[in-house]
Amino acid sequence: MTKTLNISSLIPTFILAAFLMLSVFAAFPVDAAVAEMQDKCTLTRSITMESDAGTEVTIAKGSVVTAGNADISTGDGAYKEWATICLLNTVNAITDWAFFILINVAFVFILYAGFLFMTAGANPENKDKAGQMIAAALVGIVIAILARVLPAVVTGILI
Fold first, then answer.
1. What is the dihedral of CA 26, 94, 15, 135, to 10 degrees?
2. Residue 93: is it exposed, middle or buried by C-beta count within 10 angstroms (0-12/13-18/19+)?
3. Which residues share a beta bridge with 19?
4. Per-residue confidence (pLDDT) for residue 116, from 0 to 100
């Protein structure tokens, strides 16, 4: 009797894993320095937005974005839309980490599955287990790719 892989049974596992990875960030204590930084952020990636004049403006990686009344095209770092810029920066950082972790876990799954397959010999259970692990790794890779697409979707919605 052969077992078939039911991918729909793996989805809750991946959602739980993603939740656990993201909950690590919530476990860090909030101190006075973090409380003072609530109205500014330092960009970890360049962000391109449209100014009030309708032109595209790129805010460079490493720029400090603070709360203010200036238009994005002024380039002084104090923007009306600072919260949107900081939100995009946070989404980018979280999805970068999620992509990195998921790709590495999928790589380890594929390596281990390859080892199981190569050492299975006449044991069909190990071959089936290796096939299931590779399928789970492919699902993880798809989820990782979706993590890379998420910032573009959020940017499209917010801007």
1. -140
2. middle
3. none
4. 87
Predicted local confidence at residue 3, as pLDDT: 62
What residue numbers bound the domain in which 136 lies? 7-158
DSSP code per residue over 70-120: E-GGG-SSEETTHHHHHHHHHHHHHHHHHHHHHHHHHHHHHHHHHHHHHH-
Q: List, for residues 83-100, the tens digit of each pLDDT value.
A: 778 888 888 888 888 888
31 pLDDT more than 60: no
Task: Assign 63 to helix, strand or coil.
Answer: coil
Question: CA-CA distance, 122 to 75, in Å (whole number)?
Answer: 67
State the Cα–Cα distance between residues 38 and 74, nearest whole angstrom.
Answer: 22
Is 112 within a domain? yes
- Examine residue 131 and state whether it is found in any structural domain, yes or no: yes
Supply 22's token pair.
């993201």
